[in-house]
Amino acid sequence: MTPRPASAPVGTVTRGTTNPNRLRRMDRWIAAAHGAELRRAADPLAVDLGYGAAPWTALELLHRLRTAAPRTRVAGVEIDPARVASARPYEREGLVFLRGGFEIPVPGSPVLVRAANVLRQYDEGEVAGVWRRLCARLAPADQAAGSRGGLLVEGTCDEIGRRHVWVALGPEGPRTVTFATRLGSLDRPSDLAERLPKALIHRNVPGEPVHAFLRDFDRAWAAAAPYASYGARQRWIRAVRDLTADWPVTDGPARWRQGEVTVRWGALAPRGW
């Protein structure tokens, strides 16, 4: 892969914390939700933006996406040149590492950009601008071909990937918010609030939609307590099913069984967004 002409990378160096399998929940969701888009693309390029101090997440992304779309290629992009240099010995067929930032220094338009734990250190007011910049780099929609275009997945998780919340965006902007967790570690759904992405984490206060959603989710979880005797998965499924009466949940039981629920962005968007 030949990178785009050199320019100053846009962004700042992150902490770089990474662990093997940290992003497995996000990766599996991407493969399920976006696999068809990757399969139909002429050039199914995915970008692991800000992969951190070790290359594990990019290697794992390649492996997981290829289970859904075997022609997928991955470019790991990091702003820190030392991290890029240390990752390059891990390059292989379909995987390269490049220095860059939000400008995404790859040729063409990626079908996927994953930015996990990247915007956490930025100010809330910077998020919309970063989103617009990244969405402008995505492969465009093609209605004639049945394509919705590329996907940006931006979110935050804990250090070992038990709790994760991400926003999925297309070329037109934000689409959905997904909450994902290891159900055995969950006391109540609002525990996920600590992993809300930057656009939402400071909005978990009364009067904001995301606060109301987590409040209703906790109530549904409490009402579903009798299902706990069948396991946390059955309790989660019941609670999410009850949520669908008042919230625009976009997925179904097959994803709920994974400890996930996806809601339309418009229902959770911050006031005045």
Automatic annotation (TrEMBL):
Protein name per Swiss-Prot or TrEMBL: Methylase
InterPro entries: SAM-dependent_MTases_sf
